[in-house]
User: What shape does this take?
Amino acid sequence: MDVRVTSDPQAFEQTVFPFLQQDAVLHTLIMSNVHERANGTVRAESEPSYYVSVHDPDVVGVAMRTPGRGVYLGALREDLAEPIADAYLDVLPELPSVAGDRPAARRFAERWVERRGGDLTETRGTRLHKLIDFTPLDADGGAPRLMKADEVELVAAWAKDGFAEELASGHLEWAARRLEQGTMWMWEVDGEAVSMVSYHLPIFGVCRVGPVYTPPEQRRHGYAGALTSHVSAMILAGGNQACLYTDLANPTSNKIYHQAGYRPVADFVDVEFSA
Assistant: This one.
């Protein structure tokens, strides 16, 4: 078994995408992050990403670590977790967390604290869903529309409020990129934007929906569900598959997406490290 580490997203994409595209929904997070860095559509980063591939002799597993984040294993096989942990131990002085399929994430985490010390804590569970049985959802008034040019600051503020940890920084640049790509939709009621839903451009026929955000004062009117179903319908009309992630601690969003026709594909966990 051969474990390889690279910081070159283009080379990594060429090496591992034939393996990942066998199930582009299951591997959507790794594929979109690598592809966006390979084609230069993310802002410049101050430190390198580290990508790992395991070969036996063809690719059998992958992992990624982008700046400021933990290692992401996705649906990695459990038996590959320790070799990948060893590879990251060789290049990373510290690491905040690891995420992926529970057996693999736990085994990676145990290897990390065994070598570096500290404790591990399972902090969050997420679920990947795929749109299987599309059902349009309604809201209490309003209609969908694309983001407008004068809403960059609004979208950035909503992203910072709802997804500060996921987006880390650069919210204005992130919002401006959504405007340029035409991938941010707003739900509007009486001339006021009340909810937003974005999506990633298709990679091997898969679009990942998110983030989804409604300000607290505008919630419980069905805006996010209706807008998500609108974006999902648009993705299907383009001949692509739609998928999204939910937080397992949020039963409301899981229920809404189920009503829209999304069905579970896989569950993942986040494991954090502490000194």
